[in-house]
Amino acid sequence: MNWERIIGEAIMGDDSDKQLAMDRAEVKMRVCEQITCPATGKVLDQARASVIENTADGEVTYTRAFCSEVIDESMDKLVKLSKETGIPFRILDGRVLFGNGGE
Fold first, then answer.
1. Could you tell me if residue 102 is inside a domain?
2. Which has the closest alpha carbon to 97: 5, 35, 26?
3. Mean pLDDT for the chain?
4. What is the layout of strands, in order, in the sheet containing 59-67?
5. Could you give the maximum distance between any two Cα atoms of the chain, in Å?
6. pTM, whole model, 2 decimals?
7. Is 78 contained in some domain?
8. Total structural domains in the chain?
9. Distance (Å, rounded) from C-alpha 12 to C-alpha 82?
10. Residue 10 CA neighbour count, 13 Å, CB half
């Protein structure tokens, strides 16, 4: 993994490139850190994992990687919970971010 390149892309690119590079780096970091999906126990792959981030007052309060299928199956529950609690979330989908199979 070439972290220097990833960080360079995040710093030097235009705004859309910066966000894409930062999102890819976040997925890579979470997958490397966790190794397995907490819901299924399967080994995570950056091209097939999704990261969920919760935020409060503009700060990320929770970040976790899961198999994308787990997020897909839980989306209705996540949306409902977000509406009930007022805590927003976003999904970083490795299938979208690494459409080329994870580089």
1. no
2. 26
3. 85
4. 59-67, 49-56, 89-93
5. 41
6. 0.78
7. yes
8. 1
9. 34
10. 13
